[in-house]
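ok new one. same drill as before - structure tokens go in, u give me an amino acid for every spot. 509 of them this time. try not to just spam alanines like last time pls lmao
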């Protein structure tokens, strides 16, 4: 039988993972990306200072949601070195000089939360029940079997399904925790994708999803060199397998009936034919290229808004943290700084960005110590670097239009550092920047918001999701596997993997 020609539009992590599995399983894969490099939102940029250039993560920074089998089976595990801090995460609340340590050991954590935050709830019950949901989700990933509520009910029971999948995050958190701070710490996950209310249906589900990576057993870690090595290495592996990649090639028209794509490269128009097309892009781009007017209209009605900003920072000497411990990986610990005191303030700040009068409202900062992690992997770079992922931004302004917010955020981080004078460079990116840099429709890391109607079995664009979850509309030869599809965005490639398995089944029939 002749090998089917598969064209994948979008060489981000999802397109790359799909290409890897399809090429290895007898397909003839070609990838096309409008950008001049592979990686999508998982790429580096260079900072130049004192005649020295140093790379940093422009988009994604940390790895954690990938499945271990994807890491192994794609060949990435043999190409990359990784490091996961075992140091407790360090949490700071406003006007509170005492740091809280999120220990890995459950007993130590229970004692810490009780002591520092007055937590009296069922922390162990939360861990146990979340573990059950995660197991259920991970089996679905491996079997490339998208979820149904019936399957969830039959495996987890009505109570857990209602609480953890269909329910809202507020009810879930109130069920297990008593302290505002525990709830806020957990609630960060819910609003990562955008201004999602803790009372939104299905918002509880984001918690187990975001903890369902198996590469580091639910934890997050770093890649030697930087996370962009994941997409670079996967592209090299794919090339060796025979995948052809065309960069600086923007697809401008798709004729699914004829199996033909029109694209531009170097200002010239060209055609390429396909048996199957996979859109590894955001859903709006896919609809504009492949859908009819009604499809485009309904795609435009989806919720896309993201509210995450990112501040990259460089230091001329290693950062000296005021909260450092004597553990060997203390300068690689994950750090979190809250700008709000109560859950109500947290919720108000999260939702404020939908008000056109606000450009930025402080919520929380997640600090990824990239330089410190590199040193743990014996990668000694000239400048120390931090990636600070923080909330809450509207879609209105670009980072360089908000110098006062960049300065405010920088000073907030430097409050926790003993050598602030060593900070030599910063760069702020807002959702507006993410929209233009990475073509994210609403500046959202997940391409779309993880909100009611856009999670779980709703996170697809198929006219027959029960049988063909990743199929695009009713088109038998077009699939969609970008971050807007189940389970979500991140440098994981789970939608790319699941989509490839579904397509292979169709091809084998
Ligand atoms: C600032 C930021 C921080 C993040 N932090 C993390 C993190 O720490 N950890 C984590 O796991 N995830 C993180 N994420 C999320 C993660 O990076 C994304 O969810 C993921 O990379 C999306 O991958 P994808 O393959 O679905 O899509 P993308 O990476 O968006 O790839 C889509 C590709 O399609 C191409 N394309 C679009 N239209 C066309 C066209 N017409 N023709 C040809 N090509 C086209 C684009 O050029 C792009 O390369 C972050 C994202 C950002 C922006």
């Amino acid at each position: 039988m002749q090998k089917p020609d598969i064209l994948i539009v979008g060489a981000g992590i999802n397109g790359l993972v799909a290409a890897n599995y399809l090429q290895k399983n007898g397909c003839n894969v070609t990838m096309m990306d409008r950008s001049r490099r592979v990686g999508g939102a998982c790429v580096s940029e260079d900072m130049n200072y004192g005649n020295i250039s140093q790379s940093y993560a422009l988009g994604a920074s940390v790895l954690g949601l990938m499945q271990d089998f994807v890491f192994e089976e794609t060949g990435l595990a043999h190409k990359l070195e990784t490091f996961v801090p075992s140091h407790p995460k360090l949490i700071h609340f406003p006007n509170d000089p005492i740091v809280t340590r999120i220990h890995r050991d459950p007993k130590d954590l229970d004692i810490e939360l009780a002591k520092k935050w007055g937590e009296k709830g069922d922390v162990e019950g939360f861990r146990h029940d979340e573990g059950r949901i995660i197991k259920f989700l991970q089996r679905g990933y491996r079997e490339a079997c998208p979820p149904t509520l019936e399957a969830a009910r039959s495996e987890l029971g009505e109570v857990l399904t209602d609480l953890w999948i269909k329910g809202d995050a507020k009810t879930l958190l109130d069920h297990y925790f008593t302290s505002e701070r525990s709830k806020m710490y957990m609630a960060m996950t819910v609003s990562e994708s955008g201004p999602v209310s803790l009372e939104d249906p299905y918002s509880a589900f984001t918690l187990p999803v975001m903890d369902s990576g198996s590469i580091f057993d639910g934890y997050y870690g770093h890649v030697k060199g930087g996370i962009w090595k994941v997409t670079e290495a996967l592209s090299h592996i794919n090339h060796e397998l025979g995948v052809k990649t065309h960069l600086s090639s923007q697809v401008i028209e798709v004729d699914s009936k004829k199996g033909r794509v029109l694209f531009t490269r170097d200002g010239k128009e060209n055609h390429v034919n396909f048996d199957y097309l996979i859109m590894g892009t955001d859903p709006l781009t896919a609809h504009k290229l492949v859908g009819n007017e009604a499809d485009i209209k309904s795609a435009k009605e989806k919720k896309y808004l993201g509210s995450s900003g990112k501040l990259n920072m460089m230091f001329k000497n290693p950062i000296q943290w005021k909260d450092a411990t004597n553990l060997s990986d203390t300068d690689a610990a994950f750090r979190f700084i809250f700008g709000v005191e109560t859950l109500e303030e947290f919720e108000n700040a999260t939702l404020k960005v939908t008000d056109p009068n606000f450009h930025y409202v402080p919520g929380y900062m997640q600090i990824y110590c990239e330089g410190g992690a590199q040193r743990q992997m014996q990668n000694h770079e000239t400048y120390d670097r931090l990636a600070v992922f923080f909330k809450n931004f509207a879609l209105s302004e670009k980072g360089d239009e908000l110098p006062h917010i960049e300065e405010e955020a920088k000073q907030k981080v430097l409050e926790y550092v003993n050598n602030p004078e060593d900070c030599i460079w910063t760069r702020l990116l807002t959702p507006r920047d993410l929209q233009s840099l990475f073509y994210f429709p609403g500046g959202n890391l997940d391409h779309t918001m993880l909100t009611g109607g856009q999670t779980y079995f709703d996170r697809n664009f198929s006219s027959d999701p029960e049988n063909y979850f990743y199929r695009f509309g009713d088109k038998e030869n077009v699939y969609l596997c970008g971050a807007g599809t189940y389970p979500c965005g991140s440098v994981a490639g789970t939608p790319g993997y699941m989509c490839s398995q579904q397509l292979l089944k169709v091809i084998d029939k």
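The CA atoms of residues 434 and 443 lie 5 Å apart. and btw The mean pLDDT is 96.
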